[in-house]
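CORE FACILITY INTAKE
Project code: CF-77B
Contact: R.S. (postdoc)
Sample description: multi-component assembly, two entities in total
Requested service: structural model of the whole complex
Turnaround: standard
Below are the sequence entries exactly as provided by the requester. Do not edit them.
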Amino acid sequence: MSIHKFTKLSMIVLSTVVIASCASTSHTAEDHSAENVDRFETYNRAMFKFNYEVDKYVIRPVAEGYRAITNQFIRNRVNSALDNLKEPVWAGNYVLQAEPEKGAKSLARFAINSTLGLAGTFDVAQGWGLEKEKTSFNETFAKWCIPSGPYIVLPIVGPSTPRAATSLALGFVFDPVYWATINDANIHDKVAWGYAALDGIATRESALELLDDLERNSVDFYTTMRSAYMQNQSKLKCFCDDNSQTNTYDFDFGIEEEDEAFDMMEDEQ
Amino acid sequence: MKKNFFAVLTASLMFFSTQAFAEVDGKKALEFVKNVTTQGIEQIINANVPQAEKDKRFAKLFNEALDLDFIGQFVLGRNWRTATPQQRKDFIAVYRELNISTWSKRFDEFKGKDFIFNGTSPSNSKGQIFVNSTVPMDQGEPAKVVWRVREKNGQFKIVDIIIENVSLAITARNEYTAFIKNNPGGVDALIANLKSKI
């Protein structure tokens, strides 16, 4: 499939999902945590299982192979170059978030690192006090107070929401790699797919230990992933609540006094 | 006269209720968390003692620093109310043990690193406060770690750890609630599953 068709198709699928999710009435959480609502659980669990198998037999082995044939130094160079290619998109998003200084910083970093930093493999700009600061369309939309929408597991990509998925697609088509090759149909698809694959493998490699640790300690890996992902989404800031000093980690434990069972336990100890 | 009486009564009630919600001493709470992490890093991870001794020290530190009775009750959610006293006891015991083994492994990752503390944030819950910190990572940006601390009878205990926006308590609660919902074995099945992980 050509990359154009693919992006068009994913846009259609996504808009359908967005419309469907807007049409259904909003649920009230039975649990007091808003993160615990899962409208499409049956579909999500099935897709999660599919992704898990794909990961087990394809993505994970490739990520491990990538780790085996490279060392940390090389992987740092690759990650740095991949991040560098995203700087223009970050810069644009900072402008959309009304943070022009950060936008200018991202552009400056892109200019410096693409040249002096040897195609971004070295972060020269950081040494000059221009720290790397990532952002995304997803953060921009969150800033504009657009709700994340329900949790959706995408094929291969994994945990997502309509807002995050739209942002992912936009980030992809605004990427310099996408534009650099757009006039040459022959290499355009190959480069775009290859770039996406490399980015995915590099990301998977850096998450190897983290995901293993989460899975090992989990009794329901699907729920653990969903909960962690949605907690992160709900912490993204919106313009409307920028000024208030609300502590987003603050929830009521709903426990006034500990159960007397504890006193009994303590007596026995 | 009567009016005045009620005014005084309301005023005094308000006074006492603000007293009851008196703020937790942020400095003390921060000192407490700092002390726990320093102890963990200096006396356990970096200490030159056998692994068995390290595990013992970690279990002791973890039990003293965290209020696992409190967290355990929260993470079981509404199933706590329907659980039998025996189930509650067994659950807390296995939850405690699993957390000790999980976090002693996780803590090893902090070898040679230091937490940087960035003050505290208030909580709406009585006697609770958040201590903010970051910890440098081998790759990428430093990780944000927030400690939720509860003061009870002048003693501080950690009741939640929030790593990169993800709350340990909320995640476990969602996970355990889902597990119990999908398992005919209920709380007993959960306890058995957790036991198998230790």
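Facility notes:
- Chain B touches chain A through 47 residues (CB under 8 Å).
- Chain B has one domain: 25-197.
Invoice: internal transfer
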